[in-house]
Amino acid sequence: MGLSTHVLDTMHGTPAAGMGVALYTTGGDGSASLVKRLVLNADGRNPDGLLYDTQSLQKGSYRLVFDVAGYFRARGVELPEPPFLNQVSLDFGIADVSQHYHVPLLVSPWSYSTYRGS
Fold it and tell me: Cα(first)–Cα(last) distance of the chain, in Å?
């Protein structure tokens, strides 16, 4: 169980290896506290596995921030200035810590999609 993420680059049809990601806890007042920063591995996942394991995951609100523009620039994609998508922030809630929460991102320089995965 716990919390995980996975990013797929839909422009190139590959995992988003090398994309920077930040995980935050968020409060009802709009505050955010950084939990960790990571760089996705060759499979587009956290190299350390889960972002939170079952014992550490707590009920509450979270934010994942994906460095989309930085990733595509590093891949040699010419982006306008400012880019259409720079950092993609996904705010989500954890209601039941006994379940697994997987937050995937499918992304190109022009669009993104997410869902609660398994």
Answer: 10
Q: pTM for this structure?
A: 0.96
Assigned token pair, 118: 């398994």
Candidates 2.60.120.280, 3.40.50.300, 2.60.40.180, 3.40.50.720; correct CATH number of 2-114? Answer: 2.60.40.180
> How far, CA to CA in Å, does 67 sit from each of 16, 24, 28, 40, 43?
11, 14, 24, 11, 16
Quickly state the pLDDT bin for 1 (edges 50, 70, 90).
confident
Spell out the domain ranges in the chain: 2-114
101 close to 74: Cβ distance less than 8 angstroms: no
Of 71, 91, 15, residue with least CA distance to 47:
15
pLDDT, position 28:
83
**CA–CA distance, 23 with 68 (Å, rounded to integer):** 15
CB 112 within 8 A of CB 106: yes
The Cα–Cα gap between 9 and 86 comes to: 14
